[in-house]
Amino acid sequence: MPLPAELSDPLAAAPSSREAVLGAFLRAHRERLSPADIGLAPGRRRRTPGLRREEVAQLAGLSTTWVTWLEQGRPVSLSARALASLAAALRLSRAERAYLFELAGRRDPQQAADETVPPTVLASVHAVAGPAYLLDRQWSALAWNEAAARLFTGWLDAAGTERNLLRAMFLSPALQALVEDWPHRAARLVAEFRAHSIRHADETPTRALIDGLMEESAAFRDAWLSQDVEDREGGRRGFRHPLLGALQFEQLTLVPAAAPGLMLVMLLPG
User: Fold this and answer.
1) 172 neighbors 160 (Cβ within 8 angstroms)
2) Sheet strands side by side (includes 132-135)
3) Residues 247, 195 within the same domain
4) Both 153 and 233 in a single domain?
5) How far apart are CA 40 and CA 21, in angstroms?
6) In contact, 135 and 204? CB cutoff 8 Å
7) Within this chain, do residues 91 and 178 fall inside the same structural domain, yes or no?
8) Domains in the chain: how many in total?
9) Spatial distance between the Cα atoms of 266 and 228, rounded to a whole number of angstroms
């Protein structure tokens, strides 16, 4: 009597470890591809669906052994370049490719190179009635609406010279005077940036930003060396505006699915 599929094939059962999940993912996507998808003749009858492991290995420029070990859930470490070749060989979509790199614990070099901001994301900034702004990977403002320009004196207004949120927070006296409980908010911002930037901490713009602030601001240096890490959470934000007086908002931060490296920040009436 044959064994049930979940007993005869360890990948048929729900995988538990990250390596097993990665192996099941790779195998499933290999089996979805047909020889015709990559320009091969069907050839002789195949015992398994989809492509063979050696075919995927050849397309990706990897050894068949490595592909086999990966599918078996063995602890194999691949470089980001090898993962990119594997993603291309398996014809992975953008979401599937991101999932592959996340499972493998690697940073996708393609994500760092793709800085295009979808028009719909830009339009969303101006569709919000309250203050709203869009930040890039280093938290420099790419776009903001009129309400944000009116609120953020010393940053997004005409007098602001620093469009990077971190640099303005620590180097702009006008922004420091605007933000209620500035010492706490500034330190919290650094802890949030540490958590957000870890995936691209070795990129030149990120390193230049941190190194520059370490030299120019003792407060930033102290906050950075504290090694605090915090999630970027919403909540009440207070401001002391020189013309509008005391203001309270609820902050909401979203990561656009079409541009996962960006952050859309909105301040809603408190």
Assistant:
1) yes
2) 141-144, 132-135, 263-269, 245-254, 235-241
3) yes
4) yes
5) 29
6) no
7) no
8) 2
9) 25
Closest CA to 169 of 157, 179, 180, 158: 179
Classify each residue of 75-112 as buried b or exposed e, where b means 16 or more C-beta atoms within 10 Å of its C-beta.
ebebeeebbbbbbebbebeeeebbbbbebbebbbeebb
CATH number, domain containing residue 62: 1.10.260.40
How far, in Å, are 21, 52, 149, 209 from residue 159 at the CA level? 52, 62, 10, 21
- Over residues 223-265, the pLDDT tens digits come to 999 999 998 777 899 999 999 999 999 999 998 887 878 999 9
CB 131 within 8 A of CB 266: yes
Q: Is residue 16 classed exposed, middle or buried when 0-12, 13-18 and 19+ CB atoms within 10 A define those classes?
A: exposed
The answer to whether residues 108 and 126 belong to one domain is no
Domain that holds residue 21: 5-113
- Residue 267 — φ and ψ, nearest 5°? -110, 115
pTM: 0.67
- Closest to 139 measured CA to CA, from 6, 22, 261, 31: 261
Q: Are 162 and 139 contacting, i.e. CB atoms less than 8 angstroms apart?
A: no
Q: Using DSSP, how many helices (H) and how many strands (E) does the chain show?
A: 14, 5
Say if residue 124 is in the same domain as residue 250. yes
Co-location of 47 and 176 in the same domain: no
Residue carrying the six token digits 């420099």: 140
Dig out the tokens for 146 from the structure: 């009129």
Does residue 14 sit in the same domain as residue 140?
no
**pLDDT tens digits for 64-91?**
998 999 889 888 888 888 888 998 989 8
CA distances from 236 to 26, 76, 165, 220, 240 (A): 44, 45, 18, 23, 14
Indicate if 59 and 181 belong to the same structural domain.
no
Rounded Cα distance, 220 and 209, in Å: 11
CATH number at residue 124: 3.30.450.180
